[in-house]
Amino acid sequence: MKTCLHLDRPLEDLFAYGADEVAHYEQQLFTVAREVAATAGLAVSWDSDAERRSSARAVMEHLGKDAPKNDDELFAWYREAGARAVAWGREQGLFTLPANYRLDVVPTPPVLRSTIDAAYYPAPPFKQNGVGRFYLTPTGNDPATLALNNRASVADTAVHEGFPGHDWHYKYMTRFGQQTISNIRWFTPGAVEDSSAMWSDSMASEGWALYAEELMAASTDEARYGFYTAPEMLYQLQGQLMRAVRVRVDIGIHTGRMTYDQAVDYFVEHVGFYPGARAAAATDPEARALMEGAERAIYRYSKWPTQAITYNLGKREIQDLKADVRRREGKDFSARDFHERLMKMGTVPASYTRAAFLGAGTA
Question: Is this model's pTM higher than 0.90 or not?
Fold first, then answer.
């Protein structure tokens, strides 16, 4: 944690921080879910904690019915969301976007289809003509798999994997890589297939992608949820909530603060909104499916210590650095300049670059 991720906080503090983040995003999610339910005319209640969780599940089940008819429509939705995100970025002046920048979504190569649903694979960093790929795995027109990609859920994934997440991040770094990013900074492969760098680059890359999700949700006078519609905002918040849960359970299971089963139950309660799913799984197919999904998630976290926490903690490092730079620069602060300068640093945690932004002697 200290050497690779550059996080010098007591683990008990981070464990408590995870719970605080979970509560923060749950509150926001329930608020948006209530709005979506009212618009859809759903007869649900929000009075107790149990009712809020049950109602949130009902709202997401309702949104899940708007699924693509086939793979062609699935790809069309992702491409439309990506194009809309790029247009929003241009309109809001979030970055200096080249006129020819566009987000492509391509079918996952067959050899990778068994392991990913949607993912970004960057171009080789030293190859000037390389192109990164936003892969989306075709379902073979399977109705059950198509149902997992409902219309409201697409936008957040397009932002995370595409613009201004991984695709824009890596294309921007490649563009300036030979000018500003030292070659040695590219030799830190963390990814999710290996742990050579013990996830330090994941703090930068996954932290940036999660930061991008939230950046696109910034309210404007015309749009309460920024780029997102209210149903899309619900899934954006669920993504933030899941990454907050990861902080709690990853630290919990690897420091003895949680058993494996407790981590699974916590995940189901706070991501699937189904407390007591373990006991209900024998007779309730929904509870059983949520338990199976949670088991897969916790198994992954149990085998890759600290990888799962890099999303939330990497995002937080960027947000904290941005706030400090804003305070330092005052009226001269430019979010666009901050973002572009940060990306030119390469895939190293933002905490390592604080001195470059704030001056020597900065911790």
Answer: yes
* Calpha distance 51→45 (Å, rounded): 6
- 169 CB burial (10 A radius; 0-12, 13-18, 19+): buried
Residue 271: which of 245, 307, 235 has the closest Cα?
245
Task: Report how far apart, in Å, the C-alpha atoms of 95 and of each of 38, 161, 163, 353 are.
Answer: 36, 17, 11, 20
- Radius of gyration of the chain, Cα coordinates, nearest whole angstrom: 20
d(CA 207, CA 318): 8
Confidence check: pLDDT of 69 > 80: yes
Residue showing tokens 């979506």: 36
pLDDT in tens, 77-117: 999 999 999 999 999 999 999 888 888 999 999 998 887 88
Please name the amino acid found at residue 270. H
Q: Hey, what long-range contacts does 289-297 have (CB within 8 A, 24 or more apart)?
A: 291/264, 294/264, 294/265, 294/267, 294/268, 295/264, 297/267
Asked if the structure places residue 1 within a domain, the reply is no
CA-CA distance, 216 to 272, in Å (whole number)? Answer: 24
Residue 5 lies in a domain: no
| pLDDT tens sequence across 138-173 | 999 998 888 889 999 999 999 999 999 999 998 888
Stated as kind and residue range, the H or E segment containing 323 is helix 310-329
- Sheet with 105-107, strands from edge to edge, namely 105-107, 133-136, 118-121
String of DSSP letters for 127-169: -TT---EEEE---TT-HHHHTTS-HHHHHHHHHHHTTTTHHHH
Residue 2 lies in a domain: no
Quote the domain boundaries for residue 122.
Answer: 11-357
CB 346 within 8 A of CB 182: yes
Confidence of residue 174 (pLDDT cuts 50, 70, 90): confident
Binning pLDDT at 50, 70 and 90, where does residue 56 land?
Answer: very high
Structural domain total, the chain: 1
